[in-house]
Design a protein that fits this description.
With 508 residues, the protein is α/β, with parallel strands linked by helices. The protein has 3 domains: 218 residues, FAD/NAD(P)-binding domain (3-Layer(bba) Sandwich); 112 residues, no CATH class; 122 residues. Helices cover 36% and strands 22% of the residues. Strands 1, 2, 9, 10, 11, 12 and 22 form a 7-stranded mixed sheet that branches. It has a 7-stranded mixed sheet with strand order 7-6-17-18-19-16-20. Helix 5 packs across helix 6 and helix 7 packs antiparallel against helix 8. Bound molecules: flavin-adenine dinucleotide.
Length: 508
């Protein structure tokens, strides 16, 4: 055996799993194809004459760094390996720029947010409060229980007897989506569209397809634990987890691309790397997407029936067109908010390059850009089909045209933006596919139809014995805190399957 457990991929899902296992004294080896940890929560550095930029490749609105309750899973995952990160609290989660001048800001202070939104819809004030209060009821149930593997019966029984009301409360919401709850309290079509956007901006689907449990987590925790940006950039999270894993005796290897999960008599027993090297372990955990795990690492011909059924329930969401900009600080002199969501026409909410996301991390942490510069990371959903089959000239031209279009749209909010840009790098779905190893560069699975809330989301075990999945293709879905949950649950399940049962040395 080369390790007790091999984790394929050093995304946050894979790293949290490995950190939990290493903290529990289990010999774990992480194999990452790229050169640094973090995956979609990674970073890249650029030196320019004015100084140094550190760009976040993806995530920047970070949940899970709270200090209270049980849902602060990034804080807990780091603590498990004796690590801690300095974070900067974000006073406003999102500044919206929506049709008909609907521009509310989601303040960290809950009452202030409700008051601000209600000013746009005074006749719906009570409904707005009642609707978001219902999200808090979901969150309070979640935040009262220890979050581990829902596939482990002894844990479920224990948690149920410790907290029957919270568990029954959550069970009630399991099959529920946001849309039906929103329509119970809210009438205005524009307000219901706003709720669609409140879902879309993290779930990339509208309210009717967004599970209420996920929404409860997101809409309450932004006011409870809050949104907190890691000092020095999001890449610090992956770095700290890796440091912690190593400290606890685990290993992380970079430039180690797994091409195959080896299966003998129906059981996963090891992996083969692109170099041909074979490594054996008792348990294999894949942090690649489910489509890449079953289809690439397990050949298409051997995909279990459960995965075929899953593919009918969930489809890949689009990827993104991303612009990483360095701009002169003056152009944002009046700006105080880090995250913005922009849409000019409700019809375009879910369309190709419709909704625009903007993150300006240097509002909170100026150290990641040269003096006198801000970073703007702006991205908009885009599907790989629009970028396939282009020759290098056409590809470069499309990149330039689409980037210009995005900058023109943002210039309506920040006049003079185009002229203030001193650095620009453009990423497309092809970039996301190449660097993150994600099929089509997808952001993750989205329901193919109207889901039964969270009931159809797959857990960590797969139909192949000894093979587990972790990350955003598993319960509860996309987002760093969500994949941290998936990692904690996966490690718990694997530890139990390794025979480490009561008194699991895994701290959460
Ligand atoms: C543009 C963008 C913005 C986002 N914004 C936010 C945000 O603001 N807040 C938030 O919480 N979330 C955000 N997200 C989502 C969040 O980043 C992801 O849900 C999360 O990081 C996914 O983590 P993961 O561990 O599941 O997978 P990944 O991050 O995809 O990591 C998987 C890792 O596995 C490696 N790998 C894959 N295949 C192999 C192989 N065969 N061999 C070896 N290694 C392999 C990859 O290189 C990668 O490092 C954003 C995502 C994107 C793309």
């Amino acid at each position: 055996m080369d390790a007790e457990v091999i984790v394929i991929g050093a995304g946050i899902g894979g790293l949290v799993t490995a950190a939990q296992l290493a903290a529990g004294g289990i010999d774990v080896l992480v194999l990452e194809k790229y050169l640094i940890p973090g995956g979609s929560a990674g970073y890249f550095d650029r030196e320019v004459p004015e100084g140094h930029y550190r760009f976040d490749v993806g995530a920047s609105m970070i949940y899970g760094f709270g200090t209270e309750g049980t849902t602060n899973l990034l804080t807990r995952a780091l603590e498990a390996v004796d690590e801690h990160l300095e974070t900067i609290p974000d006073p406003v989660q999102i500044s919206y720029h929506l049709p008909k001048g609907l521009n509310p800001r989601v303040h960290r202070d809950y009452k202030r947010f409700i008051e601000e939104l209600s000013r746009y819809f005074p006749e719906e004030k009570e409904g707005i409060r009642a609707f978001y209060d219902e999200a808090w009821r979901v969150f309070n149930c979640l935040n009262a229980i220890e979050l581990k593997s829902l596939e482990e019966i002894r844990y479920l029984t224990r948690v149920f007897f410790q907290n029957p009301l919270a568990c029954l409360g959550l069970a009630r919401y399991l099959p529920v989506n946001v849309g039906s709850v929103a329509r119970k309290y809210l009438k205005s079509p524009d307000l219901l569209k706003f709720i669609d956007m409140e879902c879309y901006c993290w779930s990339v689907v509208t309210a009717d397809q967004t599970p209420m449990i996920n929404a409860g987590m997101v809409w309450a925790d932004r006011h409870y634990g809050g949104i907190n940006y890691p000092q020095g950039g999001v890449g610090r999270i992956g770095e700290a987890l890796t440091r912690g894993i190593t400290k606890k005796g685990g290993r992380v290897r970079y430039g180690a691309r797994v091409t195959q999960v080896l299966v003998e008599r129906g059981r996963a027993v090891g992996v083969r790397l692109a170099t041909g090297e074979v490594l054996k372990a008792k348990k294999i955990i894949s942090n690649a997407t489910r489509w890449d795990t079953f289809g690439q690492l397990i050949p298409e011909a051997n995909i279990p029936a459960t995965e075929i059924r899953w593919r009918k329930r969930y489809e890949p969401s689009p990827s993104f067109l991303s612009l990483h900009l360095g701009v002169k600080r003056e152009v944002l002199a009046q700006e105080v908010d880090m995250h913005h969501v922009v849409l000019e026409d409700w019809q375009r909410l879910t369309e190709e390059q419709g909704t625009i996301f903007v993150s300006i991390p240097t509002i909170l942490d100026p150290t990641i850009a040269p003096p006198g510069r801000h970073i703007i990371h702006t991205f908009t959903p885009s599907s790989i089909e629009h970028w396939q089959g282009l020759n290098p000239t056409d590809y470069a031209q499309k990149k330039a045209q689409d980037a210009q279009c995005l900058i023109e749209r943002l210039s309506k909010i920040w006049p003079g933006l185009a002229e203030a840009i001193t650095f620009m790098e453009v990423g497309t779905p092809r970039t996301h596919r190449r660097f993150l190893g994600r099929m089509g560069g997808t952001y993750g699975p989205i329901p193919a139809g109207i889901p039964l809330g969270l009931l159809g989301a797959p857990f960590n075990r797969t139909a192949i014995k000894g093979l587990y999945c972790v990350g955003d293709s598993t319960f509860p879905g996309q987002g760093l805190n969500a994949v941290a949950f998936s990692g904690i649950a996966c490690a718990h399940r694997v530890a139990v399957d390794l025979g480490i049962t009561s008194g699991i040395p895994i701290r959460i």
